[in-house]
Design goal:
- The longest helix is centred in the first third of the chain and has 26 residues.
- This protein is an alpha+beta fold.
- It contains seven helices and 25 strands.
- The chain folds into three domains: 93 residues, Thrombin, subunit H (Beta Barrel), CATH 2.40.10.10; 99 residues, Trypsin-like serine proteases (Thrombin, subunit H, Beta Barrel), CATH 2.40.10.10; 103 residues, Roll (Pdz3 Domain).
């Protein structure tokens, strides 16, 4: 054979071929033994490098780690100190309103208590608390939690659905009641800083800040009445803030947070507050009478829908109340003639020169006056245009 030699092992009948010049070493080919030695060397070197890396600066752990030195803070800014002081002073006047509604489980017929969340504020040291009507509406019981955590059962005093305001009473010691300072809303300016304190999503004593975004807005109350001169703010208002105070930078009440505009029902930077001038006019009536006593004419109007169907614009008088200011002034109601056909009464079109196109506008115009003020009521009676001097009287209203 040219390149192979026969290797006859003792006892083996078969010859075994091997390449010329290569001899087995210890029963293993030489090339395999070399590979094995090289592999062992690589592993040893790699292990040594890993150990050095772990013991040295390459480790993710540092056994000598210590706390960082604290940088000097310096004094708080004047604006921060003002906000902190405002919250300290005003938060004691803000309460957590917890309406409790009883519901029956439709499957088990068990009665369950479902608890809501809202806000409010202390009106006086006798125990009167102001909140939104929609916060407590439908509740079978209401609890009021003060800033110190003490809870009291609340009694309903009165409400004004047209302004979405309600007054509650808690029998708490006057020493624990801090009435909120009351400001004005007629002199507010767009851009003025405002602060809201409430219980958004049940997180009580939450402070948010913003500015007056707009003034003179109109929103609809739960009863459908228009609330005038509403304050718009970008301070974060969320569910649970309703009924809480909106404050100016002096910590005075300038509005009651009432509504938001948001597709997600969370703050979108557009919140609304009932102006404090309205609150300060409505709440004393609720405390005294349980209802709002407004200046009025003493009439019952025909509905706007029917008036429009008739092609008329204004407030058509359906009924004049007996001995009312309107009756004394000579205003006429709608009556039926001998054939049963309606004879239209006076159609009110203006009050003191201010146009009146519907019932809502009539109420808004009259809200600007006080009881015993005299106004000029302009009406249309058939083809005639008439004017009557009417001394406004107290009229119970929503």
């Amino acid at each position: 054979m040219d390149n192979w030699q026969q290797d006859q092992r003792p006892g083996s009948p078969y010859p075994q071929a091997r390449p010329l010049g290569v001899r087995p070493v210890g029963g293993m080919p030489l090339w395999a033994r070399l590979v094995r030695l090289v592999s062992i060397g690589v592993i040893l070197v790699a292990g040594a490098l890993v150990w050095q890396w772990y013991r040295g600066g390459g480790s993710v752990h540092d056994t000598d780690a210590e706390p960082r030195p604290v940088a000097a803070r310096g004094s708080l800014s004047e604006a921060e100190n003002t906000t902190i002081e405002l919250f300290r002073n005003a938060s004691a006047s803000v309460v957590y309103v917890r309406p409790i509604e009883l519901r029956r489980d439709p499957f088990r017929l068990n009665v369950m208590e479902v608890e809501g969340a809202g806000s409010g504020f202390i009106w006086d040291d006798r125990g009167h608390v102001v909140t939104n009507l929609h916060v407590i509406e439908g509740a079978s019981a209401v609890k009021v939690v003060l800033a110190d955590g003490k809870s009291y059962d609340a009694k309903f005093v009165g409400a004004s659905p047209g302004n979405d305001l309600a007054v509650l009473f808690i029998d708490a010691p006057s020493s624990q009641l801090k009435p909120i300072p009351v400001g004005t809303s007629s002199d507010l300016q767009v851009g003025q800083q405002v602060f809201a304190i409430g219980n958004p999503f049940g997180f009580d004593q939450t402070l948010t800040t913003g500015i007056v975004s707009a003034l003179g807005r109109q929103i609809k109350s739960a009863s459908g009445r228009t609330i005038e001169d509403v304050i718009q703010t970008d301070a974060a208002i969320n569910p649970g803030n309703s009924g809480g105070p909106l404050l100016d930078s002096a910590g005075r009440l300038i509005g009651v947070n009432t509504a938001i505009v948001s597709p997600s029902k969370a703050s979108a930077g557009i919140g609304f507050a009932v102006p404090v001038d309205t609150v300060n006019r409505v709440v004393p009536d609720l405390v005294r009478h349980g209802r709002v006593v407004r200046p009025g004419l003493g009439i019952e109007p025909l509905s706007d829908r029917i008036t429009r169907i008739m092609g008329l614009e204004g407030v058509l008088i359906r009924r004049v109340l007996k001995d009312s200011p309107a009756a004394k002034a000579g205003l006429r109601a709608t009556v039926a003639d001998r054939g049963g056909r309606p004879v239209l009464g006076d159609l009110i079109v203006a009050i003191d020169g201010k146009p009146v196109r519907n019932v809502d506008e009539l109420l808004r115009v009259l809200d600007k006056y006080k009881i015993d003020d005299t106004v000029v009521v302009k009406t249309r009676r058939g083809d005639q245009t008439l004017e009557f001097k009417v001394k406004l009287g107290p009229i119970s209203s929503s």
